[in-house]
Protein backbone atom coordinates (compact mmCIF):
# COMPACT_ATOMS: atom_id res chain seq x y z
CA UNK A 1 0.00 0.00 0.00
CA UNK A 2 1.14 3.56 -0.76
CA UNK A 3 2.52 5.67 2.13
CA UNK A 4 -0.20 7.56 4.03
CA UNK A 5 0.04 11.17 2.83
CA UNK A 6 -3.42 12.14 4.12
CA UNK A 7 -4.19 15.84 4.52
CA UNK A 8 -7.60 16.56 6.04
CA UNK A 9 -9.88 18.86 4.05
CA UNK A 10 -11.40 21.75 6.04
CA UNK A 11 -13.02 23.91 3.37
CA UNK A 12 -15.13 26.03 5.74
CA UNK A 13 -12.47 26.45 8.46
CA UNK A 14 -14.39 24.25 10.84
CA UNK A 15 -11.31 24.12 13.03
CA UNK A 16 -12.47 27.53 14.27
CA UNK A 17 -15.46 25.78 15.85
CA UNK A 18 -13.23 23.40 17.78
CA UNK A 19 -11.59 23.98 21.15
CA UNK A 20 -7.88 23.41 21.72
CA UNK A 21 -8.77 20.15 23.49
CA UNK A 22 -10.81 18.96 20.49
CA UNK A 23 -7.87 19.62 18.19
CA UNK A 24 -5.40 17.91 20.50
CA UNK A 25 -7.58 14.81 20.76
CA UNK A 26 -8.19 14.75 17.02
CA UNK A 27 -4.55 15.26 16.09
CA UNK A 28 -3.39 12.53 18.47
CA UNK A 29 -5.87 10.09 16.88
CA UNK A 30 -4.82 11.22 13.39
CA UNK A 31 -1.14 10.66 14.09
CA UNK A 32 -1.83 7.28 15.64
CA UNK A 33 -3.83 6.14 12.59
CA UNK A 34 -1.01 7.23 10.29
CA UNK A 35 1.60 5.47 12.38
CA UNK A 36 -0.12 2.29 13.56
CA UNK A 37 -3.13 1.63 11.32
CA UNK A 38 -2.36 2.75 7.77
CA UNK A 39 0.80 0.65 7.32
CA UNK A 40 -0.88 -2.63 8.28
CA UNK A 41 -4.59 -2.30 7.56
CA UNK A 42 -4.59 -3.41 3.94
CA UNK A 43 -2.80 -6.65 4.83
CA UNK A 44 -5.28 -7.41 7.63
CA UNK A 45 -8.28 -6.57 5.44
CA UNK A 46 -6.92 -8.85 2.72
CA UNK A 47 -6.51 -11.74 5.15
CA UNK A 48 -9.84 -10.92 6.86
CA UNK A 49 -8.40 -10.56 10.34
CA UNK A 50 -8.76 -7.94 13.06
CA UNK A 51 -5.31 -6.55 13.97
CA UNK A 52 -5.34 -7.22 17.71
CA UNK A 53 -2.01 -5.46 18.21
CA UNK A 54 -3.76 -2.07 17.83
CA UNK A 55 -6.05 -2.57 20.83
CA UNK A 56 -3.61 -0.87 23.21
CA UNK A 57 -3.29 2.10 20.85
CA UNK A 58 -7.06 2.45 20.57
CA UNK A 59 -7.26 2.61 24.35
CA UNK A 60 -4.46 5.20 24.49
CA UNK A 61 -6.14 7.63 22.07
CA UNK A 62 -9.32 7.42 24.14
CA UNK A 63 -11.32 5.38 21.63
CA UNK A 64 -12.70 3.04 24.30
CA UNK A 65 -15.23 5.09 26.24
CA UNK A 66 -14.27 8.62 25.10
CA UNK A 67 -17.15 10.18 27.06
CA UNK A 68 -17.25 7.68 29.94
CA UNK A 69 -16.18 9.43 33.19
CA UNK A 70 -12.52 9.06 34.17
CA UNK A 71 -13.46 7.46 37.50
CA UNK A 72 -14.45 4.37 35.48
CA UNK A 73 -11.35 4.49 33.27
CA UNK A 74 -12.99 6.43 30.41
CA UNK A 75 -11.42 9.47 28.76
CA UNK A 76 -14.02 11.91 30.20
CA UNK A 77 -14.24 13.84 26.92
CA UNK A 78 -17.21 15.62 25.36
CA UNK A 79 -19.34 14.50 22.41
CA UNK A 80 -17.42 16.48 19.78
CA UNK A 81 -14.16 14.85 20.88
CA UNK A 82 -15.86 11.45 20.69
CA UNK A 83 -17.01 12.26 17.15
CA UNK A 84 -13.57 13.47 16.08
CA UNK A 85 -11.93 10.29 17.36
CA UNK A 86 -14.42 8.19 15.36
CA UNK A 87 -13.76 10.32 12.28
CA UNK A 88 -10.03 9.76 12.49
CA UNK A 89 -10.27 6.03 13.13
CA UNK A 90 -12.66 5.51 10.22
CA UNK A 91 -10.33 7.57 8.06
CA UNK A 92 -8.08 4.56 8.58
CA UNK A 93 -10.71 1.83 8.36
CA UNK A 94 -14.43 1.42 9.12
CA UNK A 95 -13.76 -2.01 10.64
CA UNK A 96 -11.41 -0.58 13.24
CA UNK A 97 -13.93 2.16 13.98
CA UNK A 98 -16.61 -0.50 14.37
CA UNK A 99 -14.60 -2.21 17.09
CA UNK A 100 -14.23 1.08 18.94
CA UNK A 101 -17.90 2.02 18.45
CA UNK A 102 -19.15 -1.29 19.78
CA UNK A 103 -16.82 -1.17 22.77
CA UNK A 104 -17.75 2.43 23.67
CA UNK A 105 -21.37 2.94 22.74
CA UNK A 106 -22.82 -0.55 22.77
CA UNK A 107 -20.96 -2.16 25.67
CA UNK A 108 -19.55 0.54 27.97
CA UNK A 109 -22.49 2.93 27.50
CA UNK A 110 -25.23 0.48 28.65
CA UNK A 111 -23.11 -0.69 31.60
CA UNK A 112 -22.51 2.94 32.58
CA UNK A 113 -26.12 4.12 32.03
CA UNK A 114 -28.20 1.04 32.84
CA UNK A 115 -25.85 -0.83 35.16
CA UNK A 116 -25.29 -0.55 38.92
CA UNK A 117 -22.14 0.65 40.65
CA UNK A 118 -20.77 -2.87 41.13
CA UNK A 119 -21.15 -3.60 37.41
CA UNK A 120 -19.54 -0.28 36.45
CA UNK A 121 -16.56 -0.93 38.68
CA UNK A 122 -16.17 -4.52 37.57
CA UNK A 123 -16.34 -4.03 33.80
CA UNK A 124 -15.69 -0.43 32.72
CA UNK A 125 -11.99 -0.03 33.64
CA UNK A 126 -11.05 -3.29 31.90
CA UNK A 127 -13.05 -2.30 28.80
CA UNK A 128 -11.51 1.20 28.76
CA UNK A 129 -7.98 -0.22 28.86
CA UNK A 130 -8.73 -2.77 26.16
CA UNK A 131 -7.92 -5.66 28.49
CA UNK A 132 -11.43 -6.88 27.72
CA UNK A 133 -13.23 -6.46 24.40
CA UNK A 134 -17.01 -6.51 24.43
CA UNK A 135 -19.76 -7.22 21.94
CA UNK A 136 -23.43 -6.21 21.67
CA UNK A 137 -26.07 -8.78 20.82
CA UNK A 138 -29.30 -7.35 19.48
CA UNK A 139 -29.76 -8.66 15.90
CA UNK A 140 -31.07 -12.20 15.41
CA UNK A 141 -31.27 -14.39 12.31
CA UNK A 142 -34.99 -13.55 11.90
CA UNK A 143 -35.04 -10.10 13.52
CA UNK A 144 -32.79 -7.41 12.05
CA UNK A 145 -34.64 -4.16 11.31
CA UNK A 146 -37.34 -5.33 13.72
CA UNK A 147 -35.37 -6.16 16.88
CA UNK A 148 -38.49 -5.93 19.05
CA UNK A 149 -39.55 -9.29 17.60
CA UNK A 150 -36.53 -11.04 19.15
CA UNK A 151 -36.96 -14.56 20.48
CA UNK A 152 -33.81 -14.84 22.64
CA UNK A 153 -35.19 -15.25 26.14
CA UNK A 154 -34.34 -15.89 29.77
CA UNK A 155 -36.19 -17.59 32.60
CA UNK A 156 -35.93 -16.88 36.29
CA UNK A 157 -34.66 -20.08 37.94
CA UNK A 158 -34.61 -18.68 41.48
CA UNK A 159 -30.90 -18.21 42.10
CA UNK A 160 -29.94 -17.54 38.42
CA UNK A 161 -31.38 -16.88 34.96
CA UNK A 162 -31.37 -19.42 32.11
CA UNK A 163 -30.61 -17.82 28.71
CA UNK A 164 -31.51 -19.38 25.35
CA UNK A 165 -31.39 -18.11 21.77
CA UNK A 166 -28.97 -16.81 19.15
CA UNK A 167 -27.67 -13.49 17.91
CA UNK A 168 -26.22 -12.94 14.43
CA UNK A 169 -23.94 -10.39 12.74
CA UNK A 170 -22.23 -9.48 15.99
CA UNK A 171 -19.09 -7.33 15.73
CA UNK A 172 -16.19 -8.44 17.96
CA UNK A 173 -18.07 -11.66 18.84
CA UNK A 174 -15.29 -14.16 18.01
CA UNK A 175 -12.88 -12.74 20.60
CA UNK A 176 -15.12 -10.81 22.99
CA UNK A 177 -14.60 -11.37 26.70
CA UNK A 178 -18.13 -10.19 27.53
CA UNK A 179 -21.33 -9.59 25.56
CA UNK A 180 -24.18 -7.24 26.42
CA UNK A 181 -27.13 -9.33 25.25
CA UNK A 182 -30.72 -8.20 24.81
CA UNK A 183 -33.31 -10.87 25.65
CA UNK A 184 -36.95 -11.17 26.72
CA UNK A 185 -38.03 -12.30 30.16
CA UNK A 186 -41.06 -14.52 30.73
CA UNK A 187 -43.37 -11.48 30.46
CA UNK A 188 -41.85 -10.56 27.08
CA UNK A 189 -39.99 -7.51 28.45
CA UNK A 190 -36.54 -6.81 26.93
CA UNK A 191 -33.59 -6.65 29.36
CA UNK A 192 -29.84 -6.40 29.00
CA UNK A 193 -27.68 -9.21 30.41
CA UNK A 194 -23.91 -9.38 30.66
CA UNK A 195 -22.72 -12.74 29.37
CA UNK A 196 -19.10 -13.72 30.04
CA UNK A 197 -16.85 -15.93 27.94
CA UNK A 198 -16.45 -19.28 29.63
CA UNK A 199 -20.06 -19.56 30.79
CA UNK A 200 -21.24 -23.05 29.91
CA UNK A 201 -23.42 -23.18 26.79
CA UNK A 202 -22.14 -19.84 25.40
CA UNK A 203 -20.31 -19.98 22.05
CA UNK A 204 -19.24 -17.35 19.47
CA UNK A 205 -18.61 -18.87 16.01
CA UNK A 206 -17.01 -16.52 13.47
CA UNK A 207 -18.82 -15.40 10.31
CA UNK A 208 -16.62 -15.94 7.25
CA UNK A 209 -16.74 -14.91 3.58
CA UNK A 210 -17.43 -11.20 4.14
CA UNK A 211 -16.47 -8.81 1.32
CA UNK A 212 -16.93 -5.86 3.68
CA UNK A 213 -15.46 -4.87 7.09
CA UNK A 214 -12.88 -7.59 6.57
CA UNK A 215 -10.56 -6.17 9.25
CA UNK A 216 -13.39 -6.44 11.81
CA UNK A 217 -14.32 -9.80 13.30
CA UNK A 218 -18.02 -10.66 13.03
CA UNK A 219 -19.75 -13.68 14.51
CA UNK A 220 -22.74 -15.22 16.23
CA UNK A 221 -23.59 -15.41 19.91
CA UNK A 222 -25.24 -18.72 20.76
CA UNK A 223 -26.87 -19.40 24.11
CA UNK A 224 -27.75 -22.97 24.95
CA UNK A 225 -29.16 -23.03 28.49
CA UNK A 226 -26.55 -20.53 29.72
CA UNK A 227 -26.74 -19.94 33.49
CA UNK A 228 -26.48 -16.19 34.08
CA UNK A 229 -25.84 -14.95 37.64
CA UNK A 230 -28.60 -12.59 38.72
CA UNK A 231 -26.10 -9.79 39.32
CA UNK A 232 -25.39 -9.74 35.55
CA UNK A 233 -28.78 -8.22 34.66
CA UNK A 234 -28.59 -4.48 33.89
CA UNK A 235 -31.10 -3.15 36.44
CA UNK A 236 -31.73 0.47 35.48
CA UNK A 237 -33.51 0.31 32.13
CA UNK A 238 -35.59 -2.22 30.24
CA UNK A 239 -37.74 -2.34 27.10
CA UNK A 240 -36.67 -1.72 23.50
CA UNK A 241 -35.72 1.86 24.42
CA UNK A 242 -32.70 0.50 26.30
CA UNK A 243 -30.83 -0.96 23.29
CA UNK A 244 -32.10 1.91 21.12
CA UNK A 245 -30.45 4.37 23.54
CA UNK A 246 -27.12 2.63 22.90
CA UNK A 247 -27.74 2.79 19.17
CA UNK A 248 -28.27 6.57 19.38
CA UNK A 249 -24.78 6.94 20.77
CA UNK A 250 -23.22 4.59 18.21
CA UNK A 251 -25.09 6.11 15.27
CA UNK A 252 -23.88 9.54 16.29
CA UNK A 253 -20.29 8.22 16.18
CA UNK A 254 -20.95 6.68 12.75
CA UNK A 255 -22.15 10.05 11.42
CA UNK A 256 -18.65 11.37 12.20
CA UNK A 257 -16.82 8.20 11.20
CA UNK A 258 -18.28 8.21 7.70
CA UNK A 259 -16.80 11.67 7.18
CA UNK A 260 -13.38 10.18 7.86
CA UNK A 261 -13.78 7.54 5.17
CA UNK A 262 -15.06 10.16 2.72
CA UNK A 263 -12.17 12.53 3.51
CA UNK A 264 -9.65 9.79 2.84
CA UNK A 265 -11.23 8.93 -0.53
CA UNK A 266 -11.44 12.60 -1.53
CA UNK A 267 -7.87 13.35 -0.48
CA UNK A 268 -6.55 10.31 -2.36
CA UNK A 269 -8.49 11.20 -5.53
CA UNK A 270 -7.43 14.86 -5.35
CA UNK A 271 -3.75 13.93 -5.07
CA UNK A 272 -4.05 11.34 -7.84
CA UNK A 273 -5.81 13.84 -10.12
CA UNK A 274 -2.81 16.16 -9.98
CA UNK A 275 -0.28 13.39 -10.65
CA UNK A 276 -1.95 11.18 -13.24
CA UNK A 277 -1.31 12.39 -16.78
CA UNK A 278 -3.58 11.55 -19.73
CA UNK A 279 -3.77 13.33 -23.08
CA UNK A 280 -0.74 15.33 -21.98
CA UNK A 281 -2.46 16.86 -18.95
CA UNK A 282 -3.10 15.97 -15.31
CA UNK A 283 -6.58 14.39 -15.22
CA UNK A 284 -7.54 17.02 -12.59
CA UNK A 285 -7.53 19.56 -15.40
CA UNK A 286 -10.48 17.92 -17.11
CA UNK A 287 -13.83 19.46 -16.21
CA UNK A 288 -15.48 16.09 -15.59
CA UNK A 289 -12.90 15.21 -12.94
CA UNK A 290 -13.16 18.67 -11.37
CA UNK A 291 -16.93 18.22 -11.14
CA UNK A 292 -16.40 15.06 -9.13
CA UNK A 293 -13.91 16.72 -6.77
CA UNK A 294 -16.01 19.88 -6.37
CA UNK A 295 -19.08 17.85 -5.50
CA UNK A 296 -17.10 15.68 -3.08
CA UNK A 297 -15.73 18.60 -1.09
CA UNK A 298 -19.17 20.25 -1.04
CA UNK A 299 -20.80 17.11 0.37
CA UNK A 300 -18.00 16.56 2.91
CA UNK A 301 -18.35 20.14 4.12
CA UNK A 302 -22.13 19.78 4.54
CA UNK A 303 -21.65 16.52 6.41
CA UNK A 304 -19.04 18.10 8.70
CA UNK A 305 -21.47 20.89 9.60
CA UNK A 306 -24.27 18.41 10.26
CA UNK A 307 -22.04 16.30 12.53
CA UNK A 308 -20.66 19.29 14.41
CA UNK A 309 -24.12 20.75 15.07
CA UNK A 310 -25.42 17.35 16.15
CA UNK A 311 -22.44 17.09 18.51
CA UNK A 312 -23.35 20.40 20.12
CA UNK A 313 -26.93 19.20 20.57
CA UNK A 314 -25.75 15.84 21.97
CA UNK A 315 -23.55 17.69 24.40
CA UNK A 316 -26.38 19.88 25.69
CA UNK A 317 -28.77 16.95 25.74
CA UNK A 318 -31.24 18.16 23.11
CA UNK A 319 -30.44 15.89 20.12
CA UNK A 320 -33.36 13.62 19.25
CA UNK A 321 -33.08 10.06 17.94
CA UNK A 322 -34.60 11.24 14.65
CA UNK A 323 -31.93 13.95 14.29
CA UNK A 324 -29.26 11.30 14.86
CA UNK A 325 -30.92 9.07 12.22
CA UNK A 326 -30.77 11.89 9.70
CA UNK A 327 -27.05 12.45 10.24
CA UNK A 328 -26.18 8.74 10.15
CA UNK A 329 -28.15 8.24 6.95
CA UNK A 330 -26.93 11.35 5.19
CA UNK A 331 -23.28 11.01 6.08
CA UNK A 332 -22.91 7.32 5.28
CA UNK A 333 -24.70 7.82 1.97
CA UNK A 334 -22.43 10.78 1.26
CA UNK A 335 -19.35 8.65 2.01
CA UNK A 336 -20.41 5.67 -0.08
CA UNK A 337 -21.09 7.93 -3.07
CA UNK A 338 -17.75 9.68 -2.68
CA UNK A 339 -15.92 6.36 -2.42
CA UNK A 340 -17.53 5.26 -5.67
CA UNK A 341 -16.68 8.46 -7.54
CA UNK A 342 -13.15 8.54 -6.12
CA UNK A 343 -12.60 4.95 -7.21
CA UNK A 344 -13.54 5.86 -10.74
CA UNK A 345 -11.09 8.76 -10.71
CA UNK A 346 -8.26 6.34 -10.06
CA UNK A 347 -9.19 4.23 -13.06
CA UNK A 348 -7.79 0.69 -12.84
CA UNK A 349 -5.55 1.61 -9.92
CA UNK A 350 -8.70 2.33 -7.93
CA UNK A 351 -9.60 -1.33 -7.63
CA UNK A 352 -6.25 -2.34 -6.11
CA UNK A 353 -5.09 -2.45 -2.52
CA UNK A 354 -2.39 0.09 -3.37
CA UNK A 355 -4.96 2.70 -2.43
CA UNK A 356 -7.53 2.70 0.38
CA UNK A 357 -10.59 3.62 -1.71
CA UNK A 358 -11.88 0.18 -2.68
CA UNK A 359 -11.55 -1.00 0.92
CA UNK A 360 -13.51 2.04 2.15
CA UNK A 361 -16.11 1.45 -0.54
CA UNK A 362 -16.67 -2.16 0.47
CA UNK A 363 -16.63 -1.30 4.19
CA UNK A 364 -19.29 1.34 3.75
CA UNK A 365 -21.70 -1.30 2.40
CA UNK A 366 -21.84 -2.62 5.97
CA UNK A 367 -21.93 0.81 7.54
CA UNK A 368 -24.97 1.77 5.43
CA UNK A 369 -26.70 -1.43 6.61
CA UNK A 370 -25.83 -1.80 10.29
CA UNK A 371 -27.17 0.31 13.14
CA UNK A 372 -30.35 0.81 11.13
CA UNK A 373 -30.38 0.50 7.35
CA UNK A 374 -30.49 3.48 4.99
CA UNK A 375 -34.20 2.90 4.40
CA UNK A 376 -35.05 2.43 8.07
CA UNK A 377 -33.48 5.80 8.91
CA UNK A 378 -35.48 7.40 6.14
CA UNK A 379 -38.65 5.96 7.68
CA UNK A 380 -37.62 7.35 11.07
CA UNK A 381 -37.35 10.82 9.54
CA UNK A 382 -40.64 10.25 7.72
CA UNK A 383 -42.34 9.30 10.97
CA UNK A 384 -40.84 12.30 12.72
CA UNK A 385 -42.05 14.85 10.20
CA UNK A 386 -45.49 13.35 9.45
CA UNK A 387 -46.36 11.76 12.77
CA UNK A 388 -47.49 8.74 10.71
CA UNK A 389 -45.83 5.38 11.41
CA UNK A 390 -44.81 3.43 8.29
CA UNK A 391 -43.52 0.52 10.41
CA UNK A 392 -47.01 -0.53 11.50
C1 LIG B 1 -20.71 -6.31 9.36
C2 LIG B 1 -21.91 -6.19 10.25
C3 LIG B 1 -21.73 -5.98 11.62
C4 LIG B 1 -22.84 -5.92 12.48
N1 LIG B 1 -22.66 -5.77 13.84
C5 LIG B 1 -23.74 -5.89 14.67
C6 LIG B 1 -23.55 -5.92 16.09
O1 LIG B 1 -22.43 -5.78 16.59
N2 LIG B 1 -24.63 -6.14 16.90
C7 LIG B 1 -25.90 -6.30 16.38
O2 LIG B 1 -26.84 -6.49 17.16
N3 LIG B 1 -26.11 -6.25 15.03
C8 LIG B 1 -25.06 -6.05 14.16
N4 LIG B 1 -25.26 -6.03 12.79
C9 LIG B 1 -26.61 -6.28 12.28
C10 LIG B 1 -27.24 -5.09 11.58
O3 LIG B 1 -27.61 -4.11 12.52
C11 LIG B 1 -28.41 -5.62 10.74
O4 LIG B 1 -27.83 -6.28 9.62
C12 LIG B 1 -29.34 -4.51 10.26
O5 LIG B 1 -30.06 -3.99 11.35
C13 LIG B 1 -30.32 -5.00 9.20
O6 LIG B 1 -30.93 -6.18 9.57
P1 LIG B 1 -30.99 -7.42 8.53
O7 LIG B 1 -29.60 -7.64 8.02
O8 LIG B 1 -31.66 -8.53 9.20
O9 LIG B 1 -31.85 -6.86 7.33
P2 LIG B 1 -33.45 -6.86 7.25
O10 LIG B 1 -34.04 -6.26 8.46
O11 LIG B 1 -33.90 -8.22 6.83
O12 LIG B 1 -33.67 -5.86 6.03
C14 LIG B 1 -33.57 -6.24 4.66
C15 LIG B 1 -34.02 -5.06 3.80
O13 LIG B 1 -35.41 -4.78 4.07
C16 LIG B 1 -35.55 -3.41 4.42
N5 LIG B 1 -36.66 -3.27 5.37
C17 LIG B 1 -36.82 -3.92 6.57
N6 LIG B 1 -37.93 -3.49 7.18
C18 LIG B 1 -38.49 -2.54 6.38
C19 LIG B 1 -39.64 -1.70 6.49
N7 LIG B 1 -40.46 -1.72 7.55
N8 LIG B 1 -39.90 -0.86 5.45
C20 LIG B 1 -39.08 -0.79 4.38
N9 LIG B 1 -37.98 -1.55 4.24
C21 LIG B 1 -37.67 -2.41 5.23
C22 LIG B 1 -34.22 -2.99 4.99
O14 LIG B 1 -34.03 -1.58 4.89
C23 LIG B 1 -33.26 -3.78 4.12
O15 LIG B 1 -33.02 -3.06 2.93
C24 LIG B 1 -24.15 -6.03 11.93
C25 LIG B 1 -24.31 -6.18 10.54
C26 LIG B 1 -23.21 -6.25 9.71
C27 LIG B 1 -23.43 -6.43 8.22
TrEMBL record:
The Acyl-CoA oxidase/dehydrogenase middle domain, residue ranges: 135-226
This protein's UniProt keywords: FAD, Flavoprotein, Oxidoreductase, Transit peptide
GO MF entry, a single one: fatty-acyl-CoA binding
Pfam family of the protein (one): Acyl-CoA_dh_N
Cofactors: FAD
Ranges of residues in domain Acyl-CoA dehydrogenase/oxidase C-terminal: 238-380
Ranges that cross the membrane: none
Catalytic activity entry: glutaryl-CoA + oxidized [electron-transfer flavoprotein] + 2 H(+) = (2E)-butenoyl-CoA + reduced [electron-transfer flavoprotein] + CO2
Pathway(s) of this molecule: Amino-acid metabolism; lysine degradation; Amino-acid metabolism; tryptophan metabolism
GO BP annotation list: fatty acid beta-oxidation using acyl-CoA dehydrogenase; fatty-acyl-CoA biosynthetic process
Protein name in UniProt: glutaryl-CoA dehydrogenase (ETF)
Organism (species): Algibacter marinivivus
Lineage of the organism: Bacteria, Pseudomonadati, Bacteroidota, Flavobacteriia, Flavobacteriales
Amino acid sequence: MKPDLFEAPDYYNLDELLTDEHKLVRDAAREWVKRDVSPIIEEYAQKAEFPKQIIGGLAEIGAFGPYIPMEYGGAGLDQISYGLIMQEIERGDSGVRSTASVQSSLVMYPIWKYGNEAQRNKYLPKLASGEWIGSFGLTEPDHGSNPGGMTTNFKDMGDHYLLNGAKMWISNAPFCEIAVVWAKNEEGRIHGLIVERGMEGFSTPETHNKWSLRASATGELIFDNVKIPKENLLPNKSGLGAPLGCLDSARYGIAWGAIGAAMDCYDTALRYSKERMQFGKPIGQFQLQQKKLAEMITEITKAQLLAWRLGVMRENGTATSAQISMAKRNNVDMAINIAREARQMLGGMGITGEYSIMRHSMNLESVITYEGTHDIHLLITGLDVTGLNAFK
